[in-house]
């Protein structure tokens, strides 16, 4: 989702795609003259499964994105006077006014203009009777990828009428709204508008760099346990990433050069290093006790770049010895970061996965991928719009049983507690090991992203309510970190997973 597109914008739904009165609408190119973001509507308690609506009243537009994949699915033109719309070099409405003039002073295109000048013959549309005492109902005329709402006198409507003659008569008014969507017609697409697989790939425009070509885009990560991740791609065969074995050169060959290489040494969290006896066999991630905490390096959301490695160009990586000993490969347009370091033992296999636990690697000077950080790009979160959203599924056994990037954390936690229940020495130990640490992203001197918490700490902040009475996240935008074997979840107060680290 892009919050600050440049003007002019060519909007093509499904590559990256508003609603009628209880209805909603690709074709050609519809070109608004400019876009200015006014406000957005996000379901604060469920931002990943409900549509996200961007209201653009200064441009007369409303954009609707699906929650899970964050693809633009629907564009509504609600005020034709606010923007110039062009289809195949033909104005949708002659003489549309500029955005600085009052709204509501210009009607939309007439049926004759739509029928004769723009799109030509069409199948009959749908009539929606008025919901109140209004004398006008709404006739929705649909073409492939675009639909118009025409007010029609309810007294003139009849199933037996020729809709062309009816809409050409004085009983019909010019269109009051237009919808742009991907599909053959509005009646066929509306029920699956936000759930059908998009036809086109995402735009690889989250990165600030320009490229002539892009690596095949990532559709989803399947987390198998034991340091194994299967990467499902749009057209290429799935790719297996093995933590501690996959090299930086393997990543570059499959995903292209990273958008940035980042190294930062931050030791502020080392105060929480514990000296107790931990369960090394279980490889518990925080807040387990007794495991050493590496430097809390951070990556792409840090706005301070003085500590990043400007000398290492992402496009000129050849000799592995030229890389810093520990660094992040930031793939903004793929939605993930990879931590590059010397081989370490990955997290254990899930008990029902059928995979063997990974063995301890031999000492080596070969740099490998030791962690993968999957970014949720949750609307309203501190790092929003830095990475493209990464979708994932955790497979706890050999079936498709598990949870996904859209699952609320309460559901995730319940499944993981059940998975690992036999590995704890009683309820007190289980509760102690699942206490969260609070992470504040609202202050510039706070740990930022790709958090390297792989050990334990003694002090935590008591977990309070995730949301206020109005369902909005109050306070400083703090998140909570929850650790399980091989997995580290960063969770917002509404229960959405903002980031998942697999190690």
Automatic annotation (TrEMBL):
GO terms for cellular component: trans-Golgi network. InterPro entries: PHAF1 (IPR005373), PHAF1/BROMI (IPR039156). Pfam families: PHAF1. One of its GO terms (biological process) is Golgi to plasma membrane protein transport. Residues 292-315 are annotated as: Disordered. Belongs to the PHAF1 family. This is Uncharacterized protein. It comes from Penicillium chermesinum.
